[in-house]
Amino acid sequence: MKGQCVCGATTFSVMLKNHDVHVCHCSICRRQTSGVIMTIDTEQGSLVFDQQAHLTVYNSSEWGERGFCNVCGTNLFWRTKDQSYCNINAFALNDSPEDLKLNLEIYIDNKPQFYSFDNETKKMTEADVIALFNPTE
User: Fold this and answer.
1) Residue ranges of the CENP-V/GFA domain (predicted)?
2) CB distance 59 to 50 below 8 Å
3) How far is residue 45's CA from residue 48's CA, in Å, rounded to a whole number?
4) Could you give the CA distance from residue 84 to residue 81 in angstroms, rounded to a whole number?
5) Domains of the chain, with CATH numbers?
6) Which of 46, 51, 78, 101 could form a disulfide with 11 if both were Cys (CB 3.0 to 4.6 A apart)?
7) Cβ pair 10, 74 in contact under 8 A
8) pLDDT, tens digit, for every residue of 56-98?
9) CA-angle at 70, arms to 64 and 76, nearest 5°
């Protein structure tokens, strides 16, 4: 699949691991997007940037980093620093699969009370996510 940022300065190819959409309610995602970010897991090592002169990678935690276009600011991915796990902004894909399904909300204990999703999802707390990606904490 192909994708890009809003302005088209940063483009990529990727293979999706599945068609499951995940929502993150952490304070960084909410601040970065003024809402939630919706992501899709990628096959390990499949995210390849075709145009990356304007790609910036931000060191967002001890174990994770975020990639974005430094021209338009589009958030493109989050991945572990060892790149064993990566997800992409679901809306950065040029052509989204028609069978996408929202099935997971992470950092659910950080979610503000003023919004919620109607469909049933698996929910993980901040502690659950930290244990998954950084088991030494």
Assistant:
1) 1-108
2) no
3) 8
4) 8
5) 2-133 (2.170.150.70)
6) 51
7) yes
8) 999 998 889 999 999 999 999 999 999 999 999 999 999 999 9
9) 45
1 within 8 A of 16, measured Cβ to Cβ: yes
DSSP state of 93: B
Task: With CA atoms as reference, report the closest residue to 42 among 71, 7, 13, 9.
Answer: 13
Instruction: Count Cβ atoms below 10 Å from residue 127 Cβ, excluding itself.
Output: 11
One-letter identity of residue 68? F
Question: Would you state the structure tokens that stand for residue 23, as one six-digit string?
Answer: 């929502």
Q: Which helix (H) or strand (E) is 48 found in, with range?
A: strand 48-51
- 32: phi then psi, degrees, rounded to nearest 5: -70, -35
Calculate the dihedral angle through the C-alpha atoms of 20, 11, 107, 96, rounding to the nearest 10 degrees.
-30
Q: How far is 74 from 34, CA to CA, in rounded Å?
A: 12
Q: How far is the C-alpha of 81 from the C-alpha of 39, rounded, in Å?
A: 17
